[in-house]
Amino acid sequence: MYVKNTKEILDKANANYYGVGAFNINNLEFLQAIIDAAIEKRAPVIVETSEGAMFYAGNGDFRKGARVLAEMVMEFAKDAPIPVALHLDHGHDVEHVMAAIQAGYSSVMIDASAKPYKENVKITAEVVRIAHAANISVEAELGRLVGIEDNVSVLERDATLVDPSEAKDFVERTGVDFLAPAIGTSHGAFKFKGEAKLDFDRLKKVKEITKMPLVLHGASTVLPRYVEKANKYGAKIEGAKGVPYNILRESVKYGINKINTDTDLRVAFLAELRKALYDDVSQIDPRKLFKPAMKAIKEVVMERIDVLGSTGKY
Ligand code: G3H
Ligand code: 13P
Ligand code: ZN
């Protein structure tokens, strides 16, 4: 079923201490694989699109793209026996956020985290006012997404990671529904140069202060088995490192309820697509080449649903 407001899914996860997977899509193939996986695991799921996905799906027209993506998600969600929400990931531009709201998304993220604190508060509060009038929820980010390096000073960490003392003021002034605190993750396949670690002290403080559903961005595990397979079939991905499963489990234990994953799906899809192209050089039907790649996405999503603890939650 299509969930009109993502809050329904995340408030429940927050009250019952589990995490819900939020998976990025740009096209039909990723969507089908994600929904199939969530159905098999009887888990609630959040499908999300970036602003870039809206431009891509609309062939350059982001409003059209938002409508195409929303129609597609609603069509598949309608028959699914699990809750499926559609979220706008990292909305930087208020016009893009408006397009998602108008297309019927279940929630939006306004990401003004690169702006000075006061401006972040002002923009976020304005988006919350509009989104709440449409009865959908809003996510915002505090701090910036950069990996924790061993040799980074306390001062540098303070400058980039979430400042827990700002969290209460931010939530009260803006009225956001979910908060993404920067605790040391980053987007993409190269998250840590040394050992993978997150700042759980900051996470625990933010949870204690806000008690609201919290979001982990840059949460991909960057599974070695898919990186190796991609490299075996011609890719050149060196030094990739993600957030291991034990750290994801700990993050959920300390209050993360929405876990964003894009890179893991991209890497799994590409590894299997490369293999399929190599194995069947005479194949000219893209659908046949996509099948094993979609299966890989489904497996990755199912594995993550287990790790986050949302298996059987619906
Ligand atoms: O937050 C980043 C997501 O991986 C989306 O990336 O802007 O390339 O679609 P994108
Ligand atoms: P990854 O690059 O780790 O998959 O992060 C995705 C994300 O945070 C989307 O908002
Ligand atoms: Zn993100």
Question: How would you describe this structure to a colleague?
Answer:
This protein is an alpha/beta fold. It has a single domain, classed as TIM Barrel (Alpha-Beta Barrel). The chain is built from 13 helices and 8 strands. Strand 1, helix 2 and strand 2 form a beta-alpha-beta unit. Helix 10 packs parallel to helix 12. The protein starts with 6 loop residues before the first helix and ends in a 6-residue tail after the last helix. The mean pLDDT is 96.
Main β-sheet: number of strands, strand sense, barrel status?
Answer: 8 strands, parallel
Strand content: 5-15%
Total domains, how many? 1
Low-confidence stretches: none
Specify Rg, calculated over alpha carbons. Answer: 19 Å
Helix content: 40-55%
User: Largest beta sheet: what is the strand line-up?
Assistant: 6-5-4-3-2-1-8-7
Architecture, according to CATH? Alpha-Beta Barrel
The succession of helices and strands, N to C, reads HEHEHHEHEHEHHEHEHHEHH
Structural class estimated from helices and strands: alpha/beta
Calculate the terminal CA-CA distance, rounded to whole Å. 11 Å
CATH topology name, in short, is TIM Barrel
Number of strands: 8
Small molecules bound in the structure, each named once: glyceraldehyde-3-phosphate, 1,3-dihydroxyacetonephosphate, zinc ion
If you average the pLDDT, what whole number results? Answer: 96
Q: Output the CATH homologous superfamily.
A: Aldolase class I
Query: Which outline best applies?
Result: globular
Q: Would you state the CATH class? A: Alpha Beta
